[in-house]
Amino acid sequence: MNALSSETSLQDSQSLDYHTKYPAGKIQTSLPKALNSMADLAIAYSPGVAAPVRAIAADQRNVNRYTARGNTVAVVSNGSAILGLGNLGPYAAKPVMEGKAALFKRFADINAVDLELDVDNPDHIISVVKALEPSFGGINLEDISAPDCFYIEEKLQAAMDIPVFHDDQHGTAIVVCAALLKACEKQQKCLHECKVVINGAGAAALATANMLLALGVSAHQLTLCDIVGVLHSERRQDVHEWHRPFLRETDARTLAEVAPGADILIGLSARDAFNQDLMAMLAERPIVFALANPEPEILPPDVLAVRPDAVIATGRSDYPNQVNNLLAFPFVFRGALDVGATAITEAMKVAAVKALARINCPKGDILPTIFNPMLAEAIPAAVAKAAVEDGVAQIMEKQAPEILADPGYEFMQPMPEAEGAVRLECDPLGEVPVPAASYFGPQTVRALRNFPISGNKIADMPELLLALAWVKKSSALTNKRLKLVDAAVANAIIAACDEIIAGRHHHDFCVDVIQGGAGTSTNMNCNEVIANRAQEIMGYERGRYDIVHPNDHVNCNQSTNDSYATAVRIAVHQLSARLEQGLNQLALAIEEKAVEFAHIPKLARTQLQDAVPMTLGQEFRAFAETLFEDVSRASEIKSLFLEVNLGGTAIGTGVGANLDYQSRVVAVLCEVSGLPFRASKNRIEATWDMGAFTLFSGMLKRLAMKLSKISNDLRLLSSGPAGGIGEIKLPDRQPGSSIMPGKVNPVIPEVVNQVCFRVFGMDTAITFAAEAGQLQLNAMEPLILYSIHESCSLLLNAMATLKDNCIAGIEANEARCLKNLQNSTALAVNLVSVIGYERAASIAKQAQATEQAFVEYLKDNHPELLGFVDNANPASGG
After folding, report:
1. Closest to 694 measured CA to CA, from 640, 774, 632
2. CA distance 705 to 244
3. Among 15, 632, 635, 737, which one carries the catalytic annotation?
4. How far apart are CA 773 and CA 769, in angstroms?
5. Is 737 in the active site?
6. Do residues 612 and 829 touch, judged by C-beta distance below 8 A?
7. What does the angle CA 583 – CA 586 – CA 591 come to, to the nearest 5 degrees?
8. Relative to the CA of 32, which of 77, 536, 606, 674 has its CA 20 to 30 Å away?
9. pTM more than 0.70
10. 748-804 pLDDT, tens per residue?
């Protein structure tokens, strides 16, 4: 046994002893106020507690004033990526989550509750956490595997008005980048000039890469690798949408091929991923962060043996320069909670990076230890100030003067001088005041005034934002290659698009999903956000469009009628892929039940009357097969949305667009998205034809009809249980009545029914909208997209809850199945081939008259026929 493994064994033993000492675990509830007398009790609980209840009911904002919510964070995990140990499940995650909760309290005086969820489906996690919003002032996501963690965080932050922070991503990124700033200072390097290589492409690595871009590192100087190799532009294996901004145009395919000359090598991967040969390839005075946990990619002594000029950091506390997200998450949340922030924005994270990097460290280390008192002062103050200037702070009266008075504080980008500041911009209709903190511009402001319709923003449709960014990036790349837009401007537009693809700036996509103008407001919202962000990337302030113009540059060679229409088709294609996956998972879950129930004979019914024998397995297999059919249909129809009219501009003729652009842009879209798009054969027809949408909506209606029928059957088969069919038992999910003890309702099938009814209505809306197109354009496309998005989202959630909360827990009542079958004259069908229909019908009628079970009647009156019934095997047919 080597020294490291011996030391680890000792630590394991000490850790187990620590955790088992009474009381077990690391957290417990404490009482911050006196509760020692009946007088205390009367105020803390009944009747006194009614006063804060009424105050909160009158104004929901009072909840943080009268309860602990505003200083309480939920630490949420499903245990799918625990430390560096992998998917060990929610029970194994609990020691880590308790630890996070303890650290929140110890270092930032934040109450934290650990919540371990026994859920794998990301949409189910989202629904569970969203429902917790009344209880918590913030959500800390932890140890959830990629790419689910990106999707979950993005959806939750869009849906909740409290900060949602995935610590494995952003906490790690903040500390890594702060350490890099300090290490660059020590090594006399300039961060934005450094060649950076990151080994790892999971949650922490991608967040770190995004933060490095925000700090000025050039995308061309940044390379990511994973277990497959370099993330390069031609790669298709193991690439998801959050990787795409980092797919570099390079011939390098391995870590060893990109490492030579690297100034910074960051490991967020696995033990022993680095070796001394790799260290020798690095540039002079390299910076090496080996952050795999608990065992680093390479040990510091092994680095220094060949590179004594290196700065080396690890995630371990037993070596100098520990990079640990503990230095970030308690203090980021402290600052956010102090001002009631509704989100943790990019500017707040950058503020935390800079504040952490400014703290002086002893002995020349690049980071302070967690016990440095400046952490609790500098980081919360910087984060709170950024929240105020970013417009996400709600509690203005709680801002202590020191929060806003930090002379060393700087933003990466220009921000408004005070909350509520505006900038004046002009569009063709005149002057418009625009919030100074926003990336959008005057046409978006007009749309916000004109369309206060549904309350749902286009930001609520991340598939659309991804699609819009793909379209705009593809157009910018094409315009750059054809020299139709200046290369520097095009590069800035591409970089802004990459940020949107990575999930940034989504809150600025704020126009209502229902809008007039055939999607023009959505297109201009996108154009303005990209233009303003591109100008910042080039070093100019927001709101001036002489450098990057929303129409002349971002929208160059496009019209809403082709760029928005293409994005809508891409969005539906993405939704269809998710629907196909969710539907297949449900069908597989039902198929598992079919196998489980294959041996159970039961009574089949037609027109709600006893019919013939069958098995419960056959009944469930039919449910599964009908859904598997729609998996195939979804896959077929999905391909229709790969045909796009991009390049057709206003009506499909391509008016105003460069001919070379028209011929090349769809191929570039394929390159950017990794999907096999094809140009429409007739772009004029494609600009107004909504046939693919009505076909897809019809498929959604067909699926909803099947799901509703299955739900109806589940309710019937489980009815009773004593006074109904009662052949299956659905899992008990909640009490069924406020007055009837013991009653449990089939709530999951009921909610699926309601979702299906909603989808039927959406199909009608889509039909009318598709028909309403006039001449060369259909102006109702926003409603079509919104309706399809709502239908798909509802169906995905309904199928997930049906699978997880109903199908998985269904139990068969074998005794009831057999009793119902034996009591029924349906068994007479087995006598027809033996004694003929007429005599079999006569015996069935006589049995009914006696009110005996059919088997018992035969036993008493026709014992010679009993064997034909007893030996009947319903599994042999159908």
Report:
1. 640
2. 37
3. 737
4. 7
5. yes
6. yes
7. 125
8. 77
9. no
10. 999 999 999 999 998 888 888 888 888 887 777 888 888 898 999 899 989 999 999
